[in-house]
Amino acid sequence: MLYLVPTPIGNLEDITLRAIRTLKEVDLIIAEDTRTSKKLLVRYDIDTPIQSFHAHNEHSKVDLYIEQLKAGRSIALISDAGTPGISDPGYLIVRESISNEIDISCLPGPTAFVPALVMSGLPCDRFHFEGFLPVKKGRQSRLEYLVSLPNTFILYESPFRVIKTTQKLIDLGCGLRRGAVCRELTKIHEEVIRGELNKILPVLQSKTKIKGEIVMIIGPPKKS
Ligand code: SAM
Asked: From ligand 1's centre to the CA of 213, what distance in Å?
């Protein structure tokens, strides 16, 4: 059985009882960064063997883990934070497990965009999750596509690019759209900046340094 186990996005208390039990019971944990995950494992007295499985080795390692799963071992995949497969490795091993008829269980749990979306106060009945934009090539055309959608959309963004991205969205005619910049969710310095994008921009610009992890929520176009 392959288990996909969500882990906290900041506050280490945000983990389910079932996630802790699963991580204790499986034969092997595969993790994006074993050093990051060890902090969580130590906190919950989990001494299951752990190996690395990340974007740079998943193609070379997936067959090895599929063979182990077929041989009856149980494996839990975790990422550095949140739900595996959401802007993190996961898709490949899930796809290969399905084609090899291996049972999969994905535990429900933390993922950064859900609390950001719900806290934003923007329509969340329908939304588009984009995750990370391409850094260079294709970034502009992807943004043009996103602003053409009728729904709220969600970006995972770096603190180094958040001002530029907000400016770009304003240049694309979204200055009057409402948005939310959600930073360091569940952590000590959690912050949500809400408002029209052309009001959010000066707030971001007024900060000496923007640190931490960010989810941007952009509300739907205003009805004319
Ligand atoms: N798998 C994760 C999930 O389920 O949300 C996402 C992993 S992705 C590599 C990391 C990005 O998620 C960050 O760059 C940021 O955009 C967002 N993120 C993760 N933790 C966050 C937090 N505590 N506050 C705000 N954004 C966060």
From this structure: 6
